[in-house]
Amino acid sequence: MVIKEIQIKTSARNDLIDITPLIEKVVTEAGISQGICVLFVPHTTAAVTINENADPSVKVDIIASLNMLAPSGNHYQHHEGNADAHIKASLIGPSECILVQGGRLFLGTWQGIFFCEFDGPRTRKICVKLI
Amino acid sequence: MVIKEIQIKTSARNDLIDITPLIEKVVTEAGISQGICVLFVPHTTAAVTINENADPSVKVDIIASLNMLAPSGNHYQHHEGNADAHIKASLIGPSECILVQGGRLFLGTWQGIFFCEFDGPRTRKICVKLI
Amino acid sequence: MVIKEIQIKTSARNDLIDITPLIEKVVTEAGISQGICVLFVPHTTAAVTINENADPSVKVDIIASLNMLAPSGNHYQHHEGNADAHIKASLIGPSECILVQGGRLFLGTWQGIFFCEFDGPRTRKICVKLI
Question: What ipTM does the predicted assembly reach?
Fold first, then answer.
C-alpha cells in the first residue's frame, strides 16, 4: 500500500485535533486485518500524540503545559517567532506506531489520536502507512 | 503473529518498571530471528520508555524530573486529579519500536525497557507486536 | 535486510547532528522502493529527533530548552554527573519511524533527522532497519 496523506485544517496557534476517525477510515478502506499503522507528520512545528479523547479538557491541559515548558517569545535564536513550536514538536514527536487487529486500530478504551498544531492556524497533513 | 498482551501491576502513583525480561520472553517464544518489536501502551496515563536499567537511581531522577515538568495538583482543567499523568504520558509517548536481530531484542548495553506508570497503583497492560 | 549501524562522532556535551544524508544513503543502497525506515539509538544518554534543518538556530533553541527542562548539576540521585542526559533521552526518545516512498525517505520539505547527543563528546552509533 502506498502512503495515504490526510489533510487537516487547524484553527488556532496551538491545537490538538482528534483524528482517530480519519485514521480508522484509512485502515478500514485498506481492508488490512492485522499489522501496524505508522503515522508520520511531515512538518517541523506540528506533531502527533495519543491521549484521552473523552474529556476535552485533557487537551487543554496538555497545550497549557507545553506552553509553560516552551513559552512563546522572542528570547530564542530562531527569529521566525515559532521556536517554541519547533521545541514542542520534538518533545511530542512526529511519528506513532499503532497496532491493527481484526481490521481496526487496537487502541485503549480512552485513547484517541491527536494531530498537534503548534504554529497554526494552517492547512497541514499527516501521512499514514499500513504494514 | 497476533498481538501479545502483558499484564503489569504497578505499586506507586509514579513508577518505572523494568519490563525488558517480559518483552525478551515474547520475542524468544515467537521464534522470530529478525524484524521489529512494536510496543504499545493502551492507556492515557501511562507510557513506555527506554533508559538505563543498571543504576536504579536513573528512574528516580526521571520520575522527579517529570513531576517538576507536570506537577500534580488541582490547577488543571481536567478535574479527575490526574491531568499531570496525561501530560507525562504524551511527553514520554505510548509506543516504541525496537529492533530484533539473532532472535533477541537489539538493545544497547545499558538499555532497559520501562513501563511508565503515572497514575497508579493499578493493573496495566502493554501490547507487543512482532513484524 | 540486517541492521545497519552508523557511527557518529559528536563534538560537544549537548549536540544535534543532522544525519539525514547518512540515513538516506542506507535507503538508497538497500534499493528498497517503499516501506518504513526504523531508527534506533542504542544509548541511554542520546536520542533521535526530526526537526528543521534549514536554520541551524532551531537546534540551538532545542538544546537550550532541554537544558532548562533538565538542568545539569549534582542535585540528582544518579551520581555519574549525567542524570540530565538520561532525562533528555527519555523526553526525546530513542526511536523514530520514517516512511519510505519511491526509494527515498518521505520527509517534509523542512525536516531533517538529528542525532541528539546529551553526554558527549563521544563516538556513538545509530541503528537503521528497513521493513
Answer: 0.96
